[in-house]
Design brief:
By secondary structure, the protein is of the alpha/beta class. It has helices at residues 5-17, 20-27, 31-45, 61-86, 101-118, 225-233, 243-251, 280-293; strands spanning 50-52, 57-59, 93-99, 122-128, 142-146, 155-160, 163-168, 186-190, 196-203, 210-222, 238-242, 256-257, 264-265, 269-273. The chain is elongated, with a radius of gyration of 24 Å. The termini are far apart.
Length: 299
């Protein structure tokens, strides 16, 4: 007997979301329906596909192989059906999105306003927080993440390039011609314990690349780059911070770059989502933001 398509699709969501309850919420069916479909699929295939307990679901080796074989086909079919269904209607519905507070304020607000002006039937539920958000468990469609995306079940699309540069208050006199002279100046430091840190910076590329190590110290250590901007702008020291933050400080005349040819490379800012089976409204937002921002933050 051929396996039922709904049963296969339900199995895919159970594995993807690691629980029957999460799959039921996503599929908008009772948990009992998810359990019944999963049992029927195992009966049809005469194979144990998952181990279940009260808290989570773990696929068997056979289940892993079956998932890998069918997930792309299920997602492609769902995407094709959704595109046909939505091609005759205006995109509508709510997108739940999360981002760190500073990145949300600096790179998203203006573009999201433009997106809402363009798609008047779409609503946004925005969560700006620095805590880690589990996209599946908290039913979030889209996240902005700075740095590498380590979760194996998430899909990442590059949104913005990123690097770290040195900045100071415009009135701070930097009386050195060589970057190593900065070691004599106080710094506002980030996140690590202790009052001394080593910065490994790069200049140039390829065969012309140079590197330098600066051993710096300071009286203030913060866990937030927006706070670092405020402290550097208040003259409490120099700062090594993301170029996005410096760009905002430059626009308001509160920060200047120093030795701008020296950078600390950093992973890009990404848009992250949990499945390729996305509603049209979410795909539209992803494409809109990537088109608007992939070249860098607007001046």
């Amino acid at each position: 007997m051929a396996a039922d398509r709904d049963n296969i699709a339900t199995f895919v969501e159970v594995v993807r979301r690691k629980s029957l309850a999460a799959a039921a919420r996503y599929l908008e069916v009772p948990k009992s329906t998810v359990s019944r479909r999963l049992s029927r699929l195992e009966e049809q295939l005469d194979t144990k596909l998952v181990h279940r307990d009260a808290r989570r679901v773990v696929p068997t080796p056979e289940g892993v192989g079956f998932y890998d074989s069918v997930v792309d086909a299920v997602d492609a079919l769902d995407t094709a059906v959704a595109m046909i269904e939505q091609s005759t209607t205006q995109p509508r519905g709510t997108i739940r999105m999360t981002a760190p507070g500073d990145l949300g304020r600096m790179i998203l607000i203006a573009e999201l306003a433009r997106f809402l002006d363009r798609y008047t039937e779409i609503s946004l539920d925005l969560v700006f927080t620095n805590r880690f958000v589990d996209l599946v468990q908290e039913r979030v469609d889209l996240a902005v993440r700075a740095g590498e995306v380590s979760e194996p079940n998430l899909i990442a699309r590059k949104l913005l390039p990123s690097c770290f540069q040195l900045a100071a208050h415009p009135g701070n006199r930097i009386d050195c011609d060589d970057i190593t002279g900065l070691e004599a100046h106080p710094f506002v430091l980030h996140r690590r314990r202790g009052r001394t840190q080593v910065f490994r910076l790069e200049k140039g590329s390829g065969g012309d690349q140079e590197t330098v190590e600066l051993t710096v110290s300071g009286r203030v250590n913060v866990d937030d780059y927006s706070a670092m901007v405020e402290l550097v702008a208040a003259g409490q020291g120099l700062g090594l911070m993301p170029d996005l933050h410096i760009a905002e400080g430059e626009r308001t005349g509160r920060l200047v770059r120093i030795f701008p040819e020296w950078v600390l490379p950093a992973p890009s800012v990404h848009l992250v989502y949990s499945t390729r089976q996305l509603p049209e409204r979410v795909r539209l937002l992803i494409d809109f933001l990537c088109d608007a921002l992939s070249g860098g933050l607007r001046a």
